[in-house]
Design brief:
The protein has about 130 residues and is mainly β. It is about 5% helix and about 45% strand. It starts with a strand and ends with a strand.
Amino acid sequence: QVHVVESGGGLVQPGGSLRLSCAASAFTLDYGTIAWFRQAPGKEREGVSCIVGSSRAGLYYQYYTDSVKGRFTISRGNAKKMVYLKMDSLRPDKPYVYYCAAGLGRFLSIDSWSTPANYQYWGQGTQVTVSS
């Protein structure tokens, strides 16, 4: 059974950084996709970034929504079941809950990786607030 657990959220000042962690036990990234979504109160859940496995050992693809390109970095940890989202140059905004999700498929288009319904396993979320 796959379990997804996020950690690392909190309150940060504008311009600061946070690193979110996602532990996806019993999930093999080589054959699937792990993504970060975020959701503000009263808003739909939106895709932020994802990492996608491939048939080539050690090769993974990373994708980002336009608003975070150049500021956020998704990576796979040395412990194979870990995925991280490093968020730099954070901007003041409404509080978001960030969710990690694992999907049984290689989602290589923005339409596929950013669609929440494509993911079978979700964490409980971790809140990120950027405010002075």
